Amino acid sequence: MTTHAFRQVDVFGSGPFTGNPVAVVLDADGLSDADMARIARWTNLSETTFVLPPTDPGADYRVRIFTVAEELPFAGHPTLGTARAWLDAGGVPRDTGALVQECGVGLVPIRVDGDRLAFAAPALRRSGPVSDADLDEACARLRLRRDEIVDAAWVDNGPGWMGLLLADADRVLAVAPDAGARSERGFYGVAGPAAGRADGVALEVRAFMYDAGTPMAEDPVTGSLNASLAQWLTATGVLSAPYTAAQGTAIGRAGRIAVETADGELWIGGATDVAIGGTIEA
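Given the sequence above, the corresponding structure tokens read:
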């Protein structure tokens, strides 16, 4: 058994315990793939990350990201939560106000501004139109009519996201998907404009995931999805950055995601707060 520093970080919250938690195991050298998978199943959060020494000289640290079922090459709220945990544990970036994470998609720059962090949206691994067959399947799973889909595109930067644009935020919040288990997997990002809201939110977002053999799950606040939606919706003229997206509303959270531009790139940011700190034995 070895002892490892541990943090649980609330990411993208608009107040205490309103965002999406991620578990972070620091100093994870010596843990096997099986160890990491077992710990991720035990924490039972959407993701658990493991911090390792970088293999690329341009990175401050390397991270591996596990769901309860698989390893992901990239995920947004684990990226920001891991950065916060690394800083909280005494990590010192090479550059003031910024750090670089190494993960499955390569190097991801992260800006540091107090308790708010932001990552540069990574390039999409899959983009373009969705086939009629895939769109029919998405509509069946999400219980949507085809004529309710304003636009659809693959917006995959790692997990496998399909983006679905609906008419407005109210229709997004009314989505009631089929929660039954499926033999295959699917990752759906549903979004709708929220024009004129007093809180300044411009987009309402929901994220639905089906892993093979498991019921539907809804993610509270999803950085990777908001990054890919931002790339799609700003490119098609639906939105322009900067804007704020809301997520988690339908399940009792109050996530807020800031989408900004700098040096020609989109940056996805929000609050990061350490909620639990200690050690684990593994």
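DSSP finds five helices and 17 strands in the chain. Try to locate this feature in the token string yourself.
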